[in-house]
């Protein structure tokens, strides 16, 4: 059952993005398409993320020079499945990179093995248990999970993780509203998802 508040947040986020005039939109994903995507990739969208994508799919535009992602909007309808798997795997791959190359270690895993290969193997065993993050745009992510909504949007770059919006609606303002002002002192996102919130 999808929550009314999740539907409201997703629809409002889509409206805010459309108001910027930065993107064109294809028709939104249908229930049949959501079912196919969720079965193929093994997760369920959060309610607000689902409602956002049901309202309309933002169409990627040619990238600007130096842009990290050539197609930052995940192409859920007709995109390359391997590319989508890469986008879904990006957060975990970034943690593994930092374990291997930057001596990162998550305290809850216990003492870090002295051997780098053993440390990496331990991280590889532990990371399948962390909550899945689903790409919204580029390296901005929301947690997966039907029945959930209102999570802060996280910017994930290896283990450098920051807030990029109080929720999906605020994220559209923070990322795409060129007239935005400085974030005021009351802006206080609270991460809701285990493991990832500890890296903020």
UniProtKB/TrEMBL annotation:
Descriptive protein name: SMI1/KNR4 family protein
Against PANTHER family, the record matches this protein to:
OS08G0472400 PROTEIN (PTHR32011:SF2)
Q: Which organism is it from?
A: Streptomyces monashensis
